Amino acid sequence: MARRPLPRILTDSAPLARMANFASLARGREFARTAADSASDVFHPLITIGRGLRRLAVAARGRWDATPKESRGPLLFFIGACVLVVALVPYGPLLALIAVMAAGAWAGRERTPVVTGPSEAETERLRALYEALVPYLSAEGDPAPLYTHGGDWERVFGAYAFDDNGRLERLQLKYPAYFTDGEDRSRARIEQVLYAKAGRGREYHFAWDELANQLTVTVLGALPADIAAQRFVTSPGETVLGFTDPDSVQRTLPVDGADGTRDAPPVVWRTGPRSTEPHLLALGQSGSGTTTLLRSIALQALAHGDVLAVDGTGTGEFGCLVGRRGVLAVESGLAGALAALEWASQETERRLVAANRARQSGRPVPDDTRRPLWIVVDRPTALSHLAAAEGRDDPQRWLQVPLRHGRAAQVTVVVADQFESADLLSDPVRAHTKARVVLGTATAEEVRAVLGAPPHTTPTASVPPGRGYARLGSGPVLRVQVPATPDPFDDATSEAHREAVLALLPERTAPDDTESLATVDGGSAPSDPARANGADGADGVDEAEPSAAEPVGAAARVSIVKGGDARTVTGGSREALSADR
């Protein structure tokens, strides 16, 4: 039987030889690679110097090509002179060689490539923001739409910046010319989308440029909350409501903060005969800082005028002003508030009559009509509710004359109340208070309803006390942080804030344990103690008849018993106010 031959692959030695050649070739490649890496490490300095010399040569060639032909001769002469000097100096060639090698090493060093453009995560965020704007900034029939699904976001986002945490910090975008950027509702829709996609919990500023069809979104930092009550550098007739962003106003004031003295941009409210917004209205939630704002305004007003304070809450928020020079009265009861506000109304009329008679006769205006009178009323709607329950007059009715004619009579009215009671404010209060402040947490609709214009920022859900928005007349809406001016008699007040408020209070003109708020212009008490005490506790009020020789512009006198009904007021054509029980 014949034996079958073995397969050729088992008898032929050529495949085995090829496998051996492949193994030797792989070992050779690995050896060559190892040798190249070792040589690269050994000759790395020479490679760096050579790369640098090549870069210097390319730069020199470019400089030579950029040199005008008429300047090449003097340049060659200068280079030759330098070479000659180097050759003649001792050790000159060696030093020149060392300098050239050092320059080559510096020019040939490996530079870390600068990362340009957004990262992958930032790109995804910008793309998502672009896609979210497509339904609002696109229209059918647009031949070249800027916003399309899956479009190029780099066409519309001209500038952008991110913080260290990868959150959007600044964005500038273009929008089509047909977008209705003049309508507040359309703007609010775009701002809401940007606020949701850029990250909630922060406050954004939206700057609309209607001429260039551009919108710039900027993240705003927190306003400084470490500024306490202090003596601000202002002129008479100027009141600091708070402090705002540096780019919102063109003025700064030196203030003392937690980190020392610095300059801060203030929101200055100007009052007086030439003011376009002589009266102020502040609204906010409970604990938002409206009473703090009134207390800060009263302390600043006492530097140049007189203050009449009415506390509708009845909690004694203005107790620190009792018995101080320039404080005409501090009332927290309904009877006292009615009498004080009635006197303020008559005092405004008296000032108008005295000033008019003086001008008609060619004489200067009496001095007692020039001193500013501030009427500070906190929560008047609470007093209106009590008056309606007891069948008495609305205290807001007596604010009508000071509000309408106060600017000419140097009388300023400041009113503060809460949002839920804003509908109970009288028409004169809402019509004549052109300076407005909104404090605390508020929606854009609430801010617009009070200030008459929407804010250019997104209100945050949580704000510190005294934080809000302010608008003076028809000016822009500004962010504002009211200086910390707490009640110094409150146990929760810190010692630093207590000392700051007490330092601003004028000196006392009445004993600390007095039971009456008896105040006269200039700080003197009433001459008749019986009148100050309400005629020995009687329910009626003694009538005070002026003498025939008393001038029209005589100083007004207020004598109000704290917590009682007896009131005695002297001033102008009407000499006495009676308080109905």
Automatic annotation (TrEMBL):
Keyword Nuclease recorded: no
Domain of life: Bacteria
Membrane-spanning parts: 75-106
Region feature Disordered, mapped onto this chain: 251-284, 506-581
Domain FtsK: 264-448
Gene3D superfamilies given in the database record: P-loop containing nucleotide triphosphate hydrolases
Record carries keyword Isomerase: no
Protein name: FtsK domain-containing protein
Origin species: Streptomyces lydicus
